[in-house]
Inverse folding.
């Protein structure tokens, strides 16, 4: 039917009397009916059914009277095709329905395999590895990199990030723009990736414990709709964390308890992480509060870490040093950003009175190193003594053996 209609339309448009009436020598479709474009002023000379006009109104699309019957036949044929197609689909659906359970199982298996392949390809793209998982409670990320930075093709400083032994929280200090928040992000992402069986950008010697929950409080918790300031919004989030925290909780807290008076804020921050530790939670905390740096010297449940600074330029190195507290160096950062020198000089003069606390921290760290060296020396001496004892006992046993042999020889 279709080809017959097109052939007849082509012949119709080749007629001279029609060419004089037609706007263009082509046919088209309107309302699924074949029509020819006729000059509007000549529409009465072409018997048929009008199926619309052009936007300008100069062209009328007419289904010639002689084509009405064949158009109708085409519509009937198309209806028969649709009916037959539906019949085929119904039969096919009936066949598929009988295999529904098997097909769903195959679909789920396909999705699972697809996700495995996606994880593997993602790991290959990042040159990632599969860390140890759940063998102990130690979190040890060796040569770890932030996957979001790697995906942006940035040069990334890799770090060893650890939460070991009896330590419940690591307090990370250091300068602004030094990478403290990136460290929290790295820990959170790598822990979640490990739990999701996704290879991580870290050394294969890394290990991730099994965590039941992960809470990350990063950024400003201000919420105008809930009438919350930065401070009150932060406290609201901490309240939810304290209510939910327990053994198996990993908490990542960025700039803990800010937006209030520093001394009170530091005291509240200490109380929060002490309470979280008592509940069995573990995690990492970034802060500029100097008071939090002393926790590691008072309680073995806490440890220090700092992001590094280049000694000559005072610019961030983005290297994380475990076991050491850091300094914020806000004046150096401000100077690098072109801050007003007079304002900086005044700020440094005001802050000079707070230097004693920094000196105390430095002395504590030196004392810690001295004690650690003494412990190591004692351990070496103990090992040497044990080795000497072993040699002595070996020689004594040899002498006893020779003595007994000599006595047996004399008796014979």
């Amino acid at each position: 039917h279709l080809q017959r209609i097109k052939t007849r339309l082509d012949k119709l448009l080749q007629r001279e009397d029609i060419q004089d009436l037609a706007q263009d020598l082509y046919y088209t479709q309107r309302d699924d009916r074949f029509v020819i474009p006729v000059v509007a002023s000549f529409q009465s000379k072409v018997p048929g059914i009008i199926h619309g006009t052009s936007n300008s109104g100069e062209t009328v699309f007419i289904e010639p009277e002689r084509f009405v019957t064949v158009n109708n036949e085409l519509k009937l044929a198309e209806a028969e095709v649709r009916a037959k197609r539906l019949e085929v689909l119904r039969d096919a659906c009936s066949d598929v329905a009988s295999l529904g359970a098997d097909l769903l199982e195959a679909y789920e298996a396909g999705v699972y395999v697809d996700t495995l392949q996606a994880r593997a390809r993602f790991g290959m793209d990042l040159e990632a590895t599969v860390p140890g998982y759940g063998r102990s409670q130690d979190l040890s990320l060796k040569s770890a990199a932030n996957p979001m930075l790697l995906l942006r093709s940035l040069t990334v400083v890799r770090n060893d990030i650890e939460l070991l032994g009896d330590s419940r929280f690591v307090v990370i200090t250091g300068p602004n723009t030094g990478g403290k928040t990136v460290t929290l992000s790295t820990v959170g992402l790598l822990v979640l990736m490990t739990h999701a069986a996704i290879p991580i950008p870290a050394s294969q010697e890394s290990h991730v414990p099994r965590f039941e929950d992960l809470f990350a409080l990063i950024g400003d918790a201000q919420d105008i709709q809930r009438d919350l300031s930065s401070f009150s919004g932060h406290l609201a989030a901490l309240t939810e964390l304290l209510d939910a925290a327990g053994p198996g909780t990993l908490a990542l807290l960025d700039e803990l308890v800010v937006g209030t008076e520093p001394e009170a804020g530091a005291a509240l921050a200490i109380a929060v992480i002490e309470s979280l530790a008592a509940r069995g939670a573990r995690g990492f905390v970034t802060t500029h509060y100097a008071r939090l740096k002393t926790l590691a010297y008072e309680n073995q449940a806490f440890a220090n870490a700092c992001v590094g600074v280049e000694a000559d330029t005072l610019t961030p190195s983005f290297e994380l040093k475990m076991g050491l507290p850091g300094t914020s160096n806000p004046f150096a950062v401000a100077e690098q950003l072109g801050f007003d020198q007079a304002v900086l000089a005044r700020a440094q003069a005001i802050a000079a009175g707070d230097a004693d606390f920094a000196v105390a921290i430095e002395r504590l760290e030196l004392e810690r190193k001295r004690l650690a060296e003494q412990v190591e020396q004692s351990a070496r001496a103990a090992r040497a003594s044990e080795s000497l004892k072993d040699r002595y006992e070996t020689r004594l046993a040899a002498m006893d053996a020779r003595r007994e042999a000599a006595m047996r020889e004399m008796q014979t």
Notes: The first strand starts at residue 28 and ends at 30. The radius of gyration is 40 Å.
